[in-house]
Amino acid sequence: MRPEGRGDCLVRPMCPEDTAEVGALEAVCFSLPWTDGLVSHELTVRGSFSLVARETLGGPVLGYMVFRVAADAMDVLRLAVLPGGRRRGLGTELLFEGMRRARALGAAEAFLEVRENNSGARIFYEKAGFRLVGKRPGYYVETRETALVYARGLMDPGGGPGADASGRPGE
Ligand SMILES: CC(C)(COP(=O)(O)OP(=O)(O)OC[C@H]1O[C@@H](n2cnc3c(N)ncnc32)[C@H](O)[C@@H]1OP(=O)(O)O)[C@@H](O)C(=O)NCCC(=O)NCCS
């Protein structure tokens, strides 16, 4: 399915052939990147789902997301867009497609952790309707940074850029 959005974006389940591209994206986007091995291992984890975003069919992977669904909860583990692809709606497309899929699997609420100093990601998630529900001091052991815990209901359309979790980002 081609999600609607402000740009031309294709979000698809990740396949093993995407692993090297996603590993390279991890290295660029995160201070503690997952290795190619971790990225491909995640594809084998029960209840875990990985999505990739492209702007054209067969084009380069510009963004990706990993989430897990257990019982009625969705846990967003990774979400990143290459620097050159940011602020074009790809992160939003990935997030809302992930939420739509998690809801179809029975999840009623989504959770995620963000580094306290990651102000760009915090604004991004708040715009997508997530609210701050807790703090975990020292969660990132290598830097002792605090993790902020965000949550969002998947059943209600509240919050965000006029969006719901049906896969339709807002205006
Ligand atoms: C967070 C991230 C995934 C956002 O991806 P993106 O494709 O740029 O997001 P979108 O284009 O869908 O942004 C939607 C809105 O979020 C907000 N936003 C996104 N990035 C922002 C930033 N750096 N600063 C302020 N607001 C931001 C804006 O309101 C934006 O709308 P606008 O461009 O019309 O102003 C991307 O910046 C990224 O990969 N960061 C590094 C990895 C990371 O921190 N991941 C999240 C923690 S796991």
Characterization of this structure:
Strands 1-2-3-4-5-7-6 form a seven-stranded mixed beta sheet, with helices on both faces. Helix 1 (19-29) crosses helix 2. The chain contains four helices and seven strands, in the order E-H-H-E-E-E-H-E-H-E-E. It has helices at 19-29, 36-42, 90-104, 119-127; strands at 10-13, 48-54, 63-70, 73-81, 109-115, 131-140, 145-153. With 171 residues, it is of the alpha+beta class. Residues 1-5, 158-163 and 166-171 have low confidence and may be disordered. The two termini are 19 Å apart. Helices cover 25% and strands 32% of the residues. The longest helix is centred in the middle third of the chain and has 15 residues, at 90-104. The protein has one domain (10-153): Aminopeptidase (3-Layer(aba) Sandwich), CATH 3.40.630.30. Residues 29, 78-81, 86-92, 114, 118, 120-121, 123-124, 127 line the site of coenzyme A.
Gist of the model:
With 171 residues, the protein is of the alpha+beta class. Helices cover 25% and strands 32% of the residues. It has one domain (10-153): Aminopeptidase, CATH 3.40.630.30.
